Amino acid sequence: MNTQSAETTLAPPRIGPALMPLSRSRMAQWLIFVITAVLVLAPALPILLQVFVAGPLYERDWDFTFANIGRLLGNEAIGEIALTTLAFAGLTTLIAQVLGVTAALLFGRTDMPGRRVMGDMMMWPLYLSHLIMVVGWLIVYGPSGFLTQAFARMFGNAPWNLYSIPGMAVVAGVSQAPLAYLYCLYGVARSIDPTLESAARTCGAGPLTVMRRVTLPLMLPAIVTSSALNIVIAVEMLSIPLFLGRPARIDTLSSYLYLEGIGASNPQHGMVAASALVLVVLVGATLALQRLLLSRGHRYETVKGKGTRPAPLQLGALKWPLFTLAVLYIAFVVLVPVLGLVLRAFTSYLTPLIPIWDVLTLQNFRDVFQTDAYMRALWNTLIIAVVAAGLGTLLTALIALVIQRSGFPFRRTLEALAYSPRMVPGLITGLGVFYAAIVFAPFGWLRDSIWILVVAYIMATIPLGLGAIQPSVVQIGADLDKAARTVGADWITSMRRILLPLMKPALLGCFVLLFVVHLKSYVVAIFLMAPGLEIMGVTMLGLWENGAAGVTAAFATLQIAMIAILLIAARLVFGVKLYE
Amino acid sequence: MNKLVLENLTKSYGEVHAVNNISLTVEQGEFLTLLGPSGCGKSTTLAAIAGLDRPTSGVVRFGDHVLFDDMSGRFAPPEKRGFGVVFQSYALWPHLTVERNVSMPLELRRVSRAERTRRVGETLELVGLSGFEKRYPGELSGGQQQRVALARAVVFRPPLLLLDEPLSNLDAQLRQSARVWLKEIQRELGLTAIYVTHDQEEALAMSDRIAVMRAGKIVQLGTPQEIYERPQHPFAATFIGSANLIEGIVEQSARRGDAIVTRLRLADGQHLDGHSAVPMAAGTKAKLAVRGERMRVAEESGANTLDAGFTTASYLGNHYEQKLMLAGQEIRMLVDVPQPERAGKIHIAESDALVFSAE
Ligand SMILES: Nc1ncnc2c1ncn2[C@@H]1O[C@H](COP(=O)(O)OP(=O)(O)O)[C@@H](O)[C@H]1O
Ligand SMILES: [Mg+2]
Hints:
The structure holds 2 protein chains of 2 kinds. In chain A, 70% of the residues lie in helices and 0% in strands. By secondary structure, chain A is mainly α. The longest helix of chain A has 34 residues, at 76-109. The radius of gyration of chain A is 26 Å and the shape is globular. The two termini of chain B are 40 Å apart. Chain B has a 6-stranded mixed beta sheet, sandwiched between helices. A 5-stranded antiparallel beta sheet of chain B has the order 2-1-4-5-6, with helices on one face. Helix content of chain B is 25%, strand content 38%. Chain B is α+β, with helices and mostly antiparallel strands. The longest helix of chain B has 18 residues, at 172-189. Chain B folds into 2 domains: 4-236, Rossmann fold (3-Layer(aba) Sandwich), CATH 3.40.50; 242-357, CATH 2.40.50.140. Classes of the chains: A mainly alpha, B alpha+beta. The complex binds adenosine-5'-diphosphate and magnesium ion. Adenosine-5'-diphosphate (ADP) binds at residues 13, 16, 18, 36, 38-44 of chain B. Chain A: InterPro entries: MetI-like, MetI-like_sf. Chain A: Residues 82-290, 378-570 form the ABC transmembrane type-1 domain. Chain A: Keywords: Cell inner membrane, Cell membrane, Membrane, Transmembrane, Transmembrane helix, Transport. Chain A: Belongs to the binding-protein-dependent transport system permease family.
């Protein structure tokens, strides 16, 4: 017989003592669970506590009371603010959905010329922060904006006013339209069988009728999901209410919270926490409503298209009129505000009254580069974004592996915990981390270190990262890690050697996504600012409030350039495309 | 000796018992097949042995080791069991070369590099894949992937090899040769193997013993010959060799020599003698199992010769499948000469007519 049969059995590797009650894999799973729980709960609990404490939490003798809630309910202003918030969020979402759905239909399903390019440009606002969008809009369409003045010179007073709820909603709506566009685009690409549309055509329906009667109803789940997200984002939006609402004395919950918590000379912490709670309830209710509407089957609402694209719908005679409309939209809504912003950065003063070449200057950038605090803001932002995106990607990957690929008994609880920050607006996350650093002694060291921002950023984006990574884990066949287990790898080893390498593209995508989000983020950081902790977004906020429009624009231009370079590099070098 | 013992193994998903109270012993060096239709619990049983799934109750023992015992709560994870497993999907790691796939079990066992190279080379030679070391799984054909999967499962000479429908993704011709080849390797290495399949031919050709499963239970356990010749359950008879089942009523049942001969009255009043495992009470309902190739066309009346109506015949290559009506039921038999549509007679030997209680 063959000599091979004489080979002896190689016993399985010894991993710790045999049949130890708590293997190193289980310990690792517990560690991930505990880290997630602490990260998610530590900021939430102090806010809850503050609601029921009379004085600020950092005063050591806590006086428990319901007075904060009483004052909140008794405060007529709060009712009005909540209503304003709802009106603003509702109108914003309506605008964003109409624009996004229309764009998805036109760019995603028809033979309109230039739909690829316009579809890409449609996405731009998603890569930029609301702060940059609103500054761009103010520079162009604000009361003393470039086009407002140009319009006034030619036709008399401009008919628009950004300092109003509709004005706020328009800026917020066009900023959020890409989200609706994205969801509906993939909703369309994913679920529509082109023969359904062809069938309707053969029954005598024109292209617009087909869209209205066939395509649109099929997109309903995507519309519901993106509506819910947009309502949530509008409710917690800060810069637009602050820059456009404030001058007209229009307050939303976010701007009220900001002004009470930061701006007021003697902040009422109890009230702030109580109204934060109202915000969380609003967001939670929206998400619950979305769940109810979709009831089931849309757990991993992430964006992954099919390889094949159904044949486009022929627009016929409507082709060129619709094309013109789309070009005007992209030009005036997306392109002009960004161009205005960049132009403002390179000029000392932007007005149609003076020729631009007379005011061209690099002074704004010189100001940025020659001011220590501004340079610190640049570097801090970069460092925090890299570290938080790296650690966040690692953490969410581990969470996803425990949820999808382990026998950890509390993995469903872990999943619920990990997605719970969705309910907490960024402003509140920052506030919670701030409180946590005060209340919990072990977090004390975080104060005045940029790690406090890293922690807050990671916590705020766990759901986003998980949403990007979890579907990719689900797609990896379960037999692959089972096979590793049978040849002698414990859970940790099979994750490290098999699953993580296979997840590499998703990890890269997640890192780039988180990096961009952190780069443009500012809301989370607002309550955490301290000398030395400056970041770009918050610095811009302060600069604009102080009227330094040129330097703000220079900052914004730098941020746009950074994001653009990053996205282009990611696409060229790694083939990573965000949101795909 | 390294025996695998399952005692009262059960795996439930809520109300569904995927595996229902199975007991089984597999001897060292034995090739045992779990055979049954899709969804009968074969993979679940295999996963319980491999440790990939925690059973609901029962005991799994291997040699002196208790691998699972619901009473003591003991459960050895798969990596501690050290069994080789070949997955239906092959489960080759797509980011690793063939060589790395096969050497992974050795790396995990901290085998030295030189020893690893030697063993991997030997094993790849054994499965006929020398020269494919640097390929990635995506660059191999289905049959080659299947060989890599086997190499990976045997490279560390596991005391027990578990195979879950390893040939089901191959085309018919490849499956035939892979069957022979797989059996040779098992013999050569002296491996104890548990093989899962829903293909009765595969089971009959390869196994030392077959466990026929239905709805989470073992219906019959025996050698291929026993299972084929003496099915103990109508399900075993129909699933293996697809016997005909004919309904009838017991008229009398008595021991005669070594056999128990039971006389049945069929729906149309004709009588037929067959063998049953135990004496059966007169008047009870019964099922008669008879294989298509054990019936023959008769010209004259006689004992155990029945009137039947031949209907259609279809050509199967070296013989015909003849359909006929017997006692109001359509049944199939194998014939060399197709019968025209007519009334005729068939003969079934007493020992080929297996009578089961219809419960
Ligand atoms: N995770 C699960 N949850 C619920 N039922 C399951 C699960 N896995 C298997 N089953 C059920 O257990 C039964 C046996 O499955 P399986 O062992 O895979 O069958 P086989 O391998 O024989 O085709 C099937 O009815 C299947 O539906
Ligand atoms: Mg199976």
